[in-house]
Amino acid sequence: MEYKDIIYKSPVKHGLINHEKTYKDFQWEDVKKYFEHFTDEGVNIAHEAIDRHATNSYKNKIALLWEGEGNIKKQYTFLNVKAQSDKLANALKNLGVEKGDRVFLFLPRIPELYISIIAIAKIGAIAGPMFSAFGPEAVKDRLLNSEAKVLITTPELNQRVNEIKEDLPMLKHILLVGAKDNLKKNEISYESEINKASESFKIKWVDPEDYLYILYTSGTTGKPKGVTHVHNDMISHYITTKWALDLREDDIYWCTADPGWVTGTVYGTWGPWLNGISQVVYNGRFDAEQWYSIIKKYKVTVWYTAPTALRMLMKAGNEIIKKYDLSSLRYICSVGEPLNPEVIKWGLKVYNLPIHDNWWQTETGSIMISNYPSLPIKPGSMGKPFPGICAKIINTKGKELSPGKHGLLALKRGWPSMLREIWKDKKKYDEYFCVSGWYTTGDTAYMDDDGYFWFVGRADDVINTAGHRVGPFEVESALVEHKAVAEAGVIGIPDTERGEIIKAFIVLNYGHKPSPELKKEIQKFIKKRLAAHAYPREIEFTKDVPKTRSGKIMRRLLKARELGLPTGDISTLEEG
Ligand code: PRX
After folding, report:
1. d(CA 316, CA 14)
2. What is the pLDDT of residues 234-249, one digit of tens each?
């Protein structure tokens, strides 16, 4: 039996009750009425997410239920988050941060990370959250390109920054959370600045089109791109959280993503708080029992996670689930990579709930295609477009393809949270809009006769490993910096747990011999330099890497050879 033929009907019927009707009638403009201060004077997403709740009946409601490794717990009401972010906003202003300045965040998922994101928005400055597993090179690329003025980090992570500090003339201050002493040049204690700062802060009203955050993401070529979003995104954040994640007033919500990735910034910070929801943050590594204990302890009702995590939970077995009371759960969502029908089937069995897949990107800024509570699920499908989103399958000339035909997944441009700029790179930005009238996603997909969308693959060489987007060029560039590596070609190969894993084909420099030890050393080198998730789990030493006559690595050929597929047109392959 084909999984895609099985249709599960979800037992819940609320939120977006009638997708078809709402899709027909919906206007983005109508969402503005949910905001308190969407006026000519200006807007500020931090006002709508935190400050307004701190002055209404939600003020003593828990905004953040935080747990760190070692069972350390903290909780913050909306009023607490307002007070702390006001102080930090003042502290940042005292350091000279102004509207439009970039303040980057290199922090684990500690409360200060979330408070910083709010405080930066309050000034009208631009936040740049970075994943705490990044190595010095990845951090340098981002700080250099964005010309960040201030970095907020911890003494531990700052050790990686120390290696690159000299190359960052624009970086004026490093605020260290939890610094004891021995502060070096440019370093300041976060806590002492907060203690000095005034408690009263007047929020900066900004234009809806003023920038809010930059998140760097990978493409096939070049360094990571700075995808830039604006305060106006709040329209999309608010309503997609409400309808696609189905959040309601009494929910306890847990988004497992880190704000260094777009899911953690949008649906692990802004979306839930715009809706006045209490959210759980767990700052720890993946561990099946620990995850289940979080759901049980905090009585999590809505859970937003990723296919790799679900596959790892599946692997951990069904016996451990019996140890934890997970009956609080009522709605589960997933994003970032294809969600296998097997996982949905398993979820139904063990959690007694379907898992709702949804699709979007750093660039789209919010959920574009989703399975909604009121829509029957076709396992393996990403669902249907969100109201206000026109998604189609097109060919490279912009012609719409009929149902069942594979083509480019494209969106009619102009929804509220669409990226506004690739930071300092107009050419890269324009590439998204090369088909007139459309934003092209880089994904291939098809739509079925019922209007459901099915993911097929990437149209480019971008690798998706455990939901992390990795550019092969970045890994290749980092590899050739290793003294033993002359040339490298990097591809993604299928993996049952992580979707894809990274494989590198490496040509060694004269005098270096292939060995298991060298493989390990190279892997360690990439982990440290780039990021823990970006290292090649497989390495093959080879005599050459196929290239076109113009010198481009033919990754498609490497992949076809690896997977035993037809090699296609190789007429541009370099001879000899
Ligand atoms: O290839 C698609 C894949 O992840 C890409 C976007 O990655 P990123 O910008 O890091 O954002 C991830 C989380 C929003 C997409 O171009 N992707 C995302 N969701 C799905 C998916 N692939 C298959 N199914 C999904 N539901």
Report:
1. 33
2. 999 999 999 999 999 9
* CA dihedral sign, ordered 423, 425, 428, 431: positive
Ligand 1 pocket, 308 CB below 6 A?
no
566 class by beta-carbon count within 10 Å (0-12 exposed, 13-18 middle, 19+ buried): exposed
Nearest CA owner, ligand 1 atom 4: 336
In residues, how long is the chain? 576
Listed in sequence order, the residues at least 6 apart from 247 whose beta carbon sits closer than 8 Å to its beta carbon are 241, 253, 271, 272, 275, 277, 302
Beta 278-283 vs 302-305: how paired, if at all?
unpaired
CB 333 within 8 A of CB 303: yes
CATH number among 3.30.70.60, 3.40.50.12780, 3.40.630.90, 3.40.50.970, domain 19-445: 3.40.50.12780
Give the residue-averaged pLDDT of 306-326: 96
Does the Cβ of 305 fall within 6 Å of ligand 1?
no
Q: What is the pLDDT of residues 337-373, one digit of tens each?
A: 999 999 999 999 999 999 999 999 999 999 999 999 9
Averaged confidence pLDDT in the chain? 94
Q: Please give the structure tokens belonging to residue 569.
A: 């047109």
The residue whose CB lies within 8 Å of the most ligand 1 atoms, and thus the one to mutate among 218, 444, 454, 455, is 455
CATH superfamily, domain at 463-563: ANL, C-terminal domain (3.30.300.30)
Q: Which residue has the tokens 């000519």?
A: 40
* DSSP letter (8 states) at residue 224: P
Pull the structure tokens for residue 135: 């190595």
